[in-house]
Design a protein that fits this description.
Strand content: 5-15%
Radius of gyration: 25 Å
Number of helices: 24
CATH architecture of the largest domain: 3-Layer(aba) Sandwich
Order of helices and strands: HHHHHHHHHHHHHHHHHHHEEHEHEHEHH
Largest sheet: 5 strands, mixed
């Protein structure tokens, strides 16, 4: 189906006004373009950091999806976008709705099933379910190495919903339908029967008709679930509500932080153990600062690999210390971390190495993590000098500082982390 230039531009304006990552991932699942959206690094990254080129990337993605099988219909399944059009472009909406009637019924049915399954997965899956799904779907590598899926599940982060849709959308491109692959999960079946009974009946009835001709899939506790989905009835896509944090928090924060801190402290000092220390620090910081700092990149390559940084985090903090940094010392889209497993104090070369990774676009805030200081005051003064010379802000933290942060988190929550880091920050700028 072909959209006019006026209709395309109206969709573009609506997307710019209403879309976050989650809406893009939902659109990908509905339209069958999850692979394209997930692999379009600049589209989502430029959205995250409000870059100037986001508008152009968005327009190209909108045009591609609008010219596909789902056309305008796929966009109108996003409630925020539809509501925005109804309010801001009331003359355009009826024409888009008319075009939506031309979408193939099977696409509508399939999208409704996928969204219901995604909602069910979000509500019922634990980490071991994802690992089992990886084994039976040949998606183990994508699931285990996805930068956010399992981590956002563990901590109840709001981007977990989008990660679920991204993975299911990619699985949909396989020869075996994702509906079939998910069939062996009993809790998912039960949830669908209770919350989307029409879709559940459609899936099971169609499988019974096809069962004689299809070999059963590997079973995870439900041999009766249908292996195929011919003739599924039409269903309208639904939009999920956020899952309460307590429903997706698999592990309590306290033992996790305590054990991760112990792992850092147990690494023997010395350059021969640098990698082990580096990895242990990443696990601790990623838990301590979640969900504000996310998507850690290990050994991040800058300038085509001519420079590297031990860990780069995306700063998505909405309420904590790193949001305060964004508000008062912008820009800070990334936070950089260097880890030094030295027996001696870090000096000017280590400080200069980290500040050399800063830039006006990437941000000018970093953490220098080390084992201990014989003269911590001297190094903090060096960091103060760097800030006064406009070379960026480096927060030094040794093992004892990390222990203080963990203790503050366990006893005071995020407020304790903010208080502790603000105290160290004050010594950099006053």
């Amino acid at each position: 189906m072909t959209l006019s230039s006026e209709q395309l531009l109206a969709l573009h304006e609506a997307v710019l006004a209403t879309f976050s990552r989650s809406e893009w991932q939902q659109l990908g699942l509905i339209s069958g373009e999850s692979d394209y959206i997930g692999s379009h690094d600049r589209l989502l990254r430029s959205l995250d950091f409000n870059d100037e080129d986001y508008s152009g990337h968005a327009l190209r993605a909108i045009k591609r999806i609008a010219e596909g099988k789902g056309g305008a219909w796929a966009f109108l399944q996003i409630p925020q976008l539809r509501n925005w059009l109804a309010q801001e472009k009331p003359a355009i909406l009826p024409a888009l709705e008319h075009l939506s009637t031309q979408v193939p019924p099977q696409l509508v049915s399939n999208a409704g099933q996928l969204l219901a399954l995604a909602e069910g997965v979000k509500q019922t899956f634990k980490e071991d379910d994802w690992l089992k799904l990886g084994i039976i779907s040949s998606f183990a590598d994508k699931i285990e190495h996805h930068p956010r899926l399992l981590r956002s599940l563990r901590f109840g982060d709001p981007d977990y919903e989008g990660c679920v849709m991204e993975i299911l959308g990619m699985m949909e491109k396989q020869s075996k339908p994702v509906q079939e692959i998910l069939g062996g999960f009993q809790k998912l079946r039960d949830w669908l029967s209770e919350n989307h009974p029409d879709i559940a009946r459609s899936l099971w009835a169609s499988a019974e008709r096809a069962n004689a001709n299809v070999s059963p899939q590997p079973n995870l506790g439900n041999p009766q679930f249908p292996p195929t989905l011919p003739g599924a009835s039409q269903a309208s896509p639904s939009h999920f509500d956020p899952v309460p944090r307590e429903q997706t928090q698999l592990f309590s924060t306290e033992p996790s932080l305590s054990s991760l801190l112990a792992t850092v402290q147990a690494v023997a000092v010395g350059t021969e153990n640098a990698t082990a220390y580096h990895r242990a620090v990443e696990q601790l910081l990623s838990t301590l600062f979640a969900p504000g700092l996310s998507e850690p990149t290990i050994e991040d390559r800058l300038h085509e690999g001519r420079k590297r940084v031990d860990i780069t985090y995306v700063n998505r903090d909405a309420h904590g210390f790193f949001r305060w940094i964004t508000d008062h010392y912008p820009p800070a889209p990334y936070i950089y971390v260097e880890c030094k497993n030295y027996s001696a104090d870090p000096g000017n070369p280590e400080l200069d190495q980290l500040t050399g990774r800063f830039s006006p676009k990437r941000g000018r805030v970093g953490l220098l993590i080390c084992r201990s200081f014989t003269n911590k005051d001297l190094f903090i003064k060096r960091c103060h000098d760097s800030a006064l010379d406009d070379r960026g802000f480096v927060i030094p933290l040794d093992d004892s500082d990390l222990a203080n942060l963990v203790n503050a988190k366990l006893h005071e929550g995020d407020d304790g982390v903010v208080r502790t880091l603000r105290s160290r920050w004050a010594r950099l700028v006053k």
